[in-house]
């Protein structure tokens, strides 16, 4: 870093020095009336003596060496300040990058750099954003390892216990085998969800784009979700309007919308209601899913679609459902937004809105 500073300094100083020399060579002090006493004429009174006129010494403040000294001093100070102005942020960026290289993912540049209104300020701001995203990605991976290991360990432990009970009690072997099959199904669903997210994330999954009757799709999902809701003393209300078909992948859309509706059923309290409303306005098709649950803290709304993020850590899951839903819906040309339902300045529920552009005006 010192080499960079001194290179800047020498370049700036050499440039200024050359400019000073050119100025001195261009504006050479000439003998004029200002360098002679008053009343002095160009023709001496004794021209016949042919003697050169006597030169009067210039004032101290007009001495050339003083000008050169002042200009050289000013050029050195200016070059040093300019080199420091450029080299100092580069040095801080170098230290910050070294921190990232040593796995210090919380490294951030201070306001001294981010407040600058030049390229270094923009670079520092982008660096802080990059470091924050990298820290969140690393934390998400660590949460993934923890959550996946926990989710896998629990059914595997139950399978081990059920296998031991089946061996000890042959009379209950059939019941134990049924429960083992249920745990295996849970494991299969978990692994499938992780693989689906991985394919959507790296772009290897290629969704189909065929005509989809979204009304039939939503109605089928709600029939299954209504059974789950009634078992928990909850109700599910469905309102379907005639809508046009859309282009998308039926299986992926089913999985994405099912996750949204089942989340609403899971988070809404007992003896409350989940409403699902599908309608069309012009060329926009809108699916709204509202619950009466506790909602999500405002500071977490922007992170709900972050992979492996869970706003409510007390609930089961690994935080992939909404991430998968967002990627599926966007791959099918739609969009998804989330908001709290606020009533009298208090959170009264949670709303998810999924929007598609219809592919034709043919109404189902």
Automatic annotation (TrEMBL):
Keyword line: Kinase, Membrane, Phosphoprotein, Transferase, Transmembrane, Transmembrane helix, Two-component regulatory system
Any Pfam family hit: HisKA
Membrane-traversing stretches: 7-29, 65-87
Reactions accelerated catalytically: ATP + protein L-histidine = ADP + protein N-phospho-L-histidine
Entry membrane topology: Multi-pass membrane protein
Entry's EC annotation: 2.7.13.3
Domain HAMP: start-end pairs: 84-139
Domain of life: Bacteria
Major place of residence: membrane
PANTHER family reported for this sequence: SENSOR HISTIDINE KINASE CUSS (PTHR45436:SF15), SENSOR HISTIDINE KINASE YKOH (PTHR45436)
Stated name of the protein: histidine kinase
């Amino acid at each position: 870093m010192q080499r960079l500073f001194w290179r800047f300094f020498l370049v700036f100083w050499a440039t200024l020095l050359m400019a000073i020399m050119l100025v001195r060579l261009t504006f050479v002090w000439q003998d004029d009336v200002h360098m002679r006493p008053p009343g002095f004429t160009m023709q001496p009174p004794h021209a016949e003596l042919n003697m050169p006129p006597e030169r009067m010494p210039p004032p101290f403040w007009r001495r050339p060496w003083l000008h050169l000294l002042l200009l050289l001093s000013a050029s050195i100070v200016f070059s040093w300040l300019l080199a420091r102005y450029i080299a100092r942020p580069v040095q801080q960026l170098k230290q910050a990058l070294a921190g990232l290289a040593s796995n210090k993912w919380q490294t951030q540049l201070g306001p001294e750099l981010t407040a600058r209104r030049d390229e270094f300020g923009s670079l520092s701001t982008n660096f802080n954003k990059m470091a924050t995203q990298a820290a969140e990605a690393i934390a998400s991976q660590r949460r993934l390892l923890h959550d996946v290991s926990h989710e896998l360990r629990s059914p595997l432990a139950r399978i081990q216990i059920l296998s031991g009970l089946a061996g000890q009690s042959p009379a209950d072997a059939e019941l134990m085998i049924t429960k083992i099959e249920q745990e295996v199904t849970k494991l299969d669903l978990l692994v499938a969800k992780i693989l689906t997210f991985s394919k959507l994330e790296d772009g290897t999954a290629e969704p189909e784009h065929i005509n989809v009757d979204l009304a039939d799709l939503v109605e089928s999902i709600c029939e299954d979700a209504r059974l789950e809701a009634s078992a928990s003393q909850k109700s599910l209300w469905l309102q379907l309007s005639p809508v046009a078909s859309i282009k998308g992948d039926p299986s992926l859309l089913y999985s994405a919308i099912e996750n949204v509706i089942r989340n609403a059923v899971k988070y809404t309290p007992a003896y409350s209601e989940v409403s699902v409303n599908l309608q069309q306005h012009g060329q926009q098709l809108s699916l709204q899913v509202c619950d009466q649950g506790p909602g999500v803290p405002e500071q977490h709304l922007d992170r709900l679609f972050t992979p492996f993020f869970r706003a409510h850590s007390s609930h089961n899951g690994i935080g992939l459902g909404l991430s998968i839903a967002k990627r599926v819906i966007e791959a099918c040309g739609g969009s998804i937004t989330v908001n709290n339902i606020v009533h009298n300045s208090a959170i009264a529920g949670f709303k998810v809105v999924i929007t598609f552009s219809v592919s034709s005006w043919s109404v189902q």
